[in-house]
Amino acid sequence: MKIRSIDHVGIIVNNLPVVQAFFLDLGLEKIGVEKVEGEWMVRMKELHDVKEEVVTLEIAMLQAVDGEANIELVKFHTASDKNDIKYPLSNTLGIRHIAFAVEDIDAIVTKLKKKGAELMGEIQTFENAYKLCFVRGPEGIILELAENIK
To answer: What is the rounded CA–CA span in Å between residue 16 and residue 20?
Structure first.
């Protein structure tokens, strides 16, 4: 038994079009969008305070240009979380960010900032090998961007 690869990272979102646009602006490509509905979702997932017998959600699957990384954006239309979106600090326990290897980090950061993303701190050089930074996008999503400068 062995793990062959990471298939995708799933992100539950409130505003699917805005978050999808953020990742498309970053350079990911849309694989597809699908609406899913069924009572099987209630049985398969542990959902908070679900009174509905049928769960309806919309999934947008995005992919890095090299095809190696997929991001699954999920909007629950029923059985949605009614809590406010959290904007955790970088050192909050749990999964905190998604890292992307990029080309021309400065141009990407400039583009994302024009679209409303926030540069967390500043772009740094690590051991003359990488330029690195963290960017907070819509709904508190944190990305790490890394450009190989060797």
So the answer is: 6
The amino acid occupying position 21 is A
Look at the pTM and tell me if it is higher than 0.90: no
Taking alpha carbons only, the member of 111, 109, 15, 113 closest to residue 60 is: 15
pLDDT at 46: 59
| Residue 91 belongs to a domain | no
71 belongs to a structural domain: yes
**Within this chain, do residues 21 and 71 fall inside the same structural domain, yes or no?**
yes
Provide the domain count of the chain: 2
**pLDDT, tens only, 35-47:** 877 666 555 555 5
134 in Cβ contact with 144 (< 8 Å)? yes
The CATH number for 125's domain is: 3.10.180.10
What the block records as the tokens of 20 is 């999808």
Structural domain of residue 105, as residue ranges? 98-148
Give a yes or no: residue 3 inside a domain: no
How open is the CA angle 143-146-150, to the nearest 5 degrees?
A: 180
pLDDT digits (tens, 9 = 90+) for 12-29: 899 999 999 999 999 999
